[in-house]
Amino acid sequence: MNAGAAHNSPGAGMPSVITAADATRMSLNSSLISANLAAYTILVLAAFQWLLIFVSHCVLQRRYVRRRPFVDRPTDDYPGVTIIRPVKGVDHGMQRTLESSFLQEYPGPVEILFAVEDPDDLAIEVISNIIARYPKAQARVLIGKDNVGINPKVNNMLKAFDQAQNDLLWICDSNVYTDPGTLRRSADLLLDNKRLGVIHHVVFSESPTSFAGMLDNAFLVTNHCRMYLAINAFGIASCLMGKSNLYYKSALDNVGGIASFGQYLAEDNMIGQALWHSGWSHTMTGDLARQPADIGSFSEYCSRRIRWVRTRKYNVTFATFYEPLTESILLGSLTS
Predict the structure, then answer these.
(1) According to the model, what pLDDT value does residue 5 have?
(2) Which of 55, 137, 255, 317 has the lowest CB atom count within 10 Å?
(3) How many helices (H) and strands (E) does the chain have?
(4) DSSP letters spanning 226-252
């Protein structure tokens, strides 16, 4: 038989039969490759998380342990500031948190506007008593509600934005306490850098009153604080919470004005992104936005976290899915 006939025979070129042992070895090899890929992925995530931890600790030492001193500059250089405090109901420790606006060591003129929706809100009495103790302060209570969207905070604040006498605004939630030097240090940064458009302060939870409050406190002062500081240190995108923010009203008007953000539940994130994309950079001082951990029940804590995840899912989808992997218990379990 010639070579051509051998080549064209029915069995020529057909693959050899795969035995059960061969199939088992192939399956094991495939499983090992998948396991190795998963292991390398987890190790990369762990290494990235350690990098974030290292960066956040560097930021803590540089910015918060060795806090920036006041800049020695003429009083007339400091612009007027309008502090806007949206208020609804009586918060735990409200007198202390609201009074911190009156105790700011700021050389320039300060206007304090309290925005309240309901004329029967019990918080009005608390605010009025504080204002009475500081008769020289330029402070007012604005009552009423606009309806420009689904965001209740924006609906409440709109009247204060309309009546603010200064271009530089400090939006500070009613349950936030800030140290007396916070406003001056923030203004110093703005005066030193004309392209700086947003000053924000990291949230620091304190004085928990329940087990749920301790859970919230643990989340805010560990994982959340670490991620917040590290992401902002890299400065590759806008990342801010609206508990305590300073920005220019004119800059906000150029990106649509406060009313245009009433359509978003996370108006703070959307405002930060809009200002970022219009060329205004962000930074933080070495000050904290201190808030009492006054969550009353575990179900309330869970509802708050679920609401937070739902809100962030539409704004920063990748971070929403990545964030669980930054939790120490889950990441530690996967790494081990």
Answers:
(1) 46
(2) 317
(3) 13, 7
(4) HHHHHHHHHTSS----TTEEEEEHHHH
Pairwise CA distance, residues 328 & 177, whole Å: 29
Residue with tokens 């020529």: 12
Q: Which pair of tokens denotes residue 224?
A: 């959340």
pLDDT in tens, 227-242: 888 888 887 778 888 8
Residue 179 appears among annotated catalytic residues: no
Model pLDDT for residues 43-92, shown as the tens digit of each residue: 887 787 788 788 888 887 888 877 888 999 999 999 999 999 999 999 88
Distance in angstroms (rounded) separating the CA atoms of residues 254 and 243: 22
C-alpha span between 75 and 59 (Å, rounded): 30
Residue owning tokens 């342990």: 65
Residue 111, strand partner residues: 82, 138
Please tell me which residue in 91, 188, 268, 294 is annotated as part of the active site.
Answer: 268
**What's the distance, CA 83 to chain centroid?**
20
Is 150 within 8 Å of 263 (Cβ atoms)?
Answer: yes
Query: DSSP letters of 160-209?
Result: HHHH-SSSEEEEE-TT-B--TTHHHHHHHHHHH-TTEEEEEEEEEEE---
Contact 217, 206 (CB under 8 A): yes
Burial of 29 (0-12, 13-18, 19+ CB in 10 A): exposed
Q: At CA 244, angle to CA 241 and CA 245, rounded to 5?
A: 80
Q: Do the Cβ atoms of 155 and 146 come closer than 8 Å? A: yes
Write out the E strands in 249-280. none
Q: What is the DSSP letter of 246?
A: E
